[in-house]
Amino acid sequence: MPTDPRDVVEHLRYYADLGVEGFSRDRAWRARAGTPSRAAAVTPAPEPRAEPASPSLAPHVTAPARSRVEALAIVRTDLGECTRCKLHKGRIKLVFGTGNAEARLMFVGEGPGAEEDEQGVPFVGRAGQLLTQIIKAMGLELEDVYIANVVKCRPPGNRNPEPDEIEQCEPFLMRQMDVIKPAVVVALGKFAAQTLLRTTEPISKIRGRFHQVGDTRVMPTFHPSYLLRNPAAKREVWEDMKAVMGVLRGNEK
Ligand code: SF4
């Protein structure tokens, strides 16, 4: 986003040319006109233009775009070549998120690992392969879901994200969720679950049941990397995914 007020005006004119009539945080603005095809809704996490790291002068643009794909692109542009927290220093690629902007099911993990950092795509390592298996076992394809992380740059040595890093990055995850409006979010592991639910409860206590966050149901479950170390826990995760499928199929309220 531009920082010069004249550029902000140009920026707003650009969106006006797209048919955007204004910007607001009001939920009424988030109603979407038209539903793009599934293929059109799959967002490959567009590369941003080089942007200044300073916060935008304009208000947060809360998806007044014509489609969720456009709205996600706006969030990505606002994130820019982010230096909001110290994790930017060690990253190769920022991992924004990928998948279907119209997804009814979204997975949220903790942060990128080494392979994700290299490719700029979430969940492409061994844990990602396991997540893909879980998604397919649910009768879905990767193109049906959206996948993102709480922090979008790799913590060095795969350490846990620190509170200040989560605080800086999490608003962009919230905006992604706000755009996609999934019926269910599966929080993968402790950090994703604790961040989304604003709790310090251990994952073992909060997994296995839905938690309401706004209009979205959040199902905390174990992270796939935990399942690689503890294969016996796959059974519990599958029980959680069966509950998720029940909601998606409308068999459970
Ligand atoms: Fe920015 Fe998030 Fe990366 Fe920190 S982790 S630099 S807040 S994108």
Account of the 3D structure:
The chain is an alpha/beta fold and 253 residues long. It contains 10 helices and 7 strands. It has helices at 5-17, 38-41, 68-79, 114-119, 126-137, 163-180, 190-197, 203-206, 224-229, 234-248; strands at 42-43, 98-100, 105-109, 146-149, 184-188, 211-213, 216-221. A 7-stranded mixed beta sheet has the order 1-2-4-3-5-7-6, sandwiched between helices. The longest helix has 18 residues, at 163-180. The radius of gyration is 18 Å and the shape is globular. Mean pLDDT is 82; it is low at 5-46 and 49-61. The structure holds iron/sulfur cluster.
Question: Could you give a short description of this structure?
Answer:
This protein has 253 residues and is of the alpha/beta class. The chain contains 10 helices and 7 strands.
Main β-sheet: number of strands, strand sense, barrel status? 7 strands, mixed
Sheet with most strands: strand arrangement: 1-2-4-3-5-7-6
Report Rg. Answer: 18 Å
Number of helices in the DSSP assignment: 10
Alpha-carbon distance between the termini?
Answer: 41 Å
Category from helices, strands and their pairing: alpha/beta
Shape category = globular
Ligands in the structure? iron/sulfur cluster
Which key terms come to mind for this protein?
seven-stranded mixed β-sheet; 11% strand; binds iron/sulfur cluster; alpha/beta
